[in-house]
Amino acid sequence: MIIEEVEKLLNDYTRWLKDKTILKQVGKDWVEITTPHLDRHNDCLQIYARKEGNGFVLTDDGYIITDLVNSGCPLESPKRQELLKTTLAGFGVQIDRDQLVVHATPDNFSLKKHNIIQAMLAVNDLFFLASPYVASLFVEDVTNWLELSDIRYTPNVKFTGKSGYDHMFNFVIPKSRKQPERIVQALSNPKKDAAEALVFKWLDTRETRAADSQLFAFLNDSNVSVSHSVIDALKNYALEPVLWSQREQAKERLAA
């Protein structure tokens, strides 16, 4: 893919973010920011900003954690708490009484806004299937499979993209004599919006990695089938979609 086409895609994405973002004054101190990013209910994610000294505080007002708990996904277990804190730490996001919070300056406001939105999406996706009907988290399943398959990896790696935004990936498998660097992302809810967000992360990040780096997207098809349009969209941008039910087909390439 030529660089001009990638540049246009990134510019189109940035323009879409700006055009679809809506601001609303809430009370005296807060501004509600409605973004075009969708949660698992297909509702637009919202964050709230308030002036604090010479900077700003941004919060989700407790929406993500409260929604998960109300949907039957308790987060009290030490393992889930550890996973939650590790995920948030990767984006520089704190948790305060169930609220996701970041502090920003005028200079890094856009970056911090990006980080808290990405953290909301990541936490939402991590626990999407963690309900009374599902025994484990999908990312845990992928972790266990990598370890049982003797595939070495580094978890929760953050890369800075060409845009200057940070992007978190679940696993990175280092380069070997036989294979290039392989980045692995687990999508527990592999719908169109999740695929588009992953494509942007990869396009923004790819130029900062080795030219032959590859990204494998593990798609959870345990309970529902994955749309062919999602698979085709990932392939069109040089990602490697791997259905969870067919994971053994990728084992040799990841283990080498």
UniProtKB/TrEMBL annotation:
Task: Report the Pfam families cross-referenced here.
Answer: DUF1828, DUF1829
Q: Which residues form the DUF1828 domain?
A: 35-123
Q: Where is the DUF1829 domain?
A: 161-247
The protein here is known as DUF1829 domain-containing protein
Annotated source species: Geothermobacter hydrogeniphilus
